[in-house]
Amino acid sequence: MQHKDNKELVILLHGMLRSKTDMLLLRKFFEKRGYATLNILYPSRKQSLEELSDFVHEKIINCPSYNENTTINFVTHSMGGLITRYYIAREKPDNLGCVVMMGPPNTGSEFADWLSETKGLAPLFKTIFGPASKQLTTKYAHIDKEINYPLGVIAGSLSINPLAPWILDGKHDGMVPVERTKIKGMSDHIVVPTTHTFMMFNRVVMKQALYFLRNNKFNRF
User: Fold this and answer.
1) Would you place residue 4 in the very low, low, confident or very high pLDDT band (cuts 50, 70, 90)?
2) Are 77 and 15 in contact (CB under 8 A)?
3) What order do you get walking across the sheet with 188-192 strand by strand?
4) Residue 172 belongs to a domain with what CATH number?
5) Would residue 104 count as lying in a domain?
6) For the residues 121-136, what does the mean pLDDT come to?
7) Could you give the CA distance from residue 149 to residue 64 in angstroms, rounded to a whole number?
């Protein structure tokens, strides 16, 4: 149970090849609404999801706003959502609140499949994306089988990726198909007209993330 003097903590995790700078607007958004925040910069190109979950764990337990009575929430972009899944599956935190994932490749992405299977691109894909590259594909079996915590997933439906129409089927955000963002056990799912690249800056996405933290569901306004 949260101590009355503690603010709930929102942990922000950016995506692959991005940085915590991309989450600054979200940090300010949640801080203005009474939350403490921890915006983590992690080495997305250098470690596997298992190693990255350990990295995140150390950042959390050493955060000045954290103690065992602090309710922790996660708001993530892209691969940050996968790291969160690994963190929760491995650490099983008793003080977990809610999780909101923006554009997560929960069951991988055919774009990652294409990069990893195309001759000439595969070595480059592994070099740029590092140890976690194979963990972004649709064939990879992750360590958790089903979600048992409040999880809201926000998918994008716009694209600025010129290659995406040739590689991805159905609605997508340019990198991840809407259907690939879904996962068994999630509490709610919503599609917002925004791109994978810029969804963390979208005001509708921000408001929906806040609404889910407060209500365990999205706002169908």
Assistant:
1) very low
2) yes
3) 36-40, 9-13, 72-77, 96-102, 151-156, 188-192
4) 3.40.50.1820
5) yes
6) 88
7) 25
Angle of helix 49-61 versus helix 79-91 axis, rounded to 10: 70
Residues of the domain holding 196 = 9-215
Which of 69, 61, 66 shows the shortest CA–CA distance to 1? 69
Per-residue pLDDT, averaged over 62-73, amounts to: 94
Centre a 10 Å sphere on the Cβ of residue 86 and count the other Cβ atoms it contains: 22
Domain assignment present for 77:
yes
Unique residue bearing structure tokens 């910069």? 41
What are 51's two structure tokens?
């190693």
**pLDDT (tens digit per residue) in 84-111:** 999 999 999 999 999 999 999 999 999 9
Is position 95 within any domain? yes
Question: What is the mean pLDDT of the segment spanning 26-34?
Answer: 97
Q: How many residues are there in the chain? A: 221
pLDDT the model gives residue 2: 40
Q: What does the pLDDT read at residue 3?
A: 41
State how many domains the chain has.
Answer: 1
Residue type, 204: V
Residue 37 belongs to a domain: yes
